[in-house]
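Final report, closing paragraph on structural work. Over the funding period we assembled a curated collection of sequence-structure pairs, and we close with a single example.
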Amino acid sequence: MERNGTLMLILDGFVDVDKYRYVYVMFFLALYVLILCSNCIIICLIWIHRNLHEPMYIFIAALSLNSLFFSTAIYPKLVVAVLSNQQSVSYSGCLVQVFFFYSLGSSDILLLLAMAYDRYVSICRPLQYASTMGTTCVSICLASAWFVPVCLMSVTVVVQSKQKICSVTLTGIICNATMMNIHCTLPKFLAMWTLFTLSVMAVIPVLFIFFTYFKIFMVAYHSQGEVWKKAVDTCLPHLIVLLATFSLMTFDIIIGLLESVLPKNVRLILTLQTLVYNPLLNPIIYGLKMTEIRKHIKRLCCSHVGVIKTQVE
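Its predicted structure, as stored:
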């Protein structure tokens, strides 16, 4: 389908969009605002307070920044699509969305890998922490977490953009793995490159993260006392976010492989989970479970309550 000379792809994943159009719009707008506000609060708190200028909190701020970019790449387009008479997106816009969707998702996993390594050095080798997790190491971790996924996904998107299209209908509400199915054929290079990217950006990092946390809890268990408490307090939030990220990555793969088998309602629910949980889960988990961040949020809330009471009086 073409519109003003631009190739358009139909988003066929919405359920009863004519009936629930404004429910969709309010739902997406509310989520987008909530994600923006919660992640901005985490970033600002870490930026303002010097006691949060540590590697672990810097990586948390980077995760929140990723959530802002991720949501901005997805939610505005969803709102525009729902308000249109026919839910569609340009082919070039779809490629851009695929690029941000997977590069930022991969970046999250690499940041979680950096956080796992940070916790490992802090708990298992505390005397080497200051020299190991210095400014240079943190900068390299941040640069790698953003640069490597961008390079790998750039190759994927460029190769994908040159393939012949046999269908203009996407079975989802966003551009993700289902986009592979609109091409007439899947080149062997693209298939091999996708497997390589999946291994480098997901499988190997996740295995290394689980191995790292296994080592951490083994050391903490034998040490008991403060070491065990520190391991639980600082590692548990990371593990929750990791499990959520891994689950959502699995959902996306399932959607891509079984799109013709899964009912539309199931595909919609799985897709919404990938869009909602991670950007919203990060600030909630870290805001509630990380002691120092929770303290600053309480102070912020108390100060605002005090100001409101003073104005009322």
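The chain has a mean pLDDT of 82. The first helix runs from residue 21 to 48. We thank the funder for supporting this effort.
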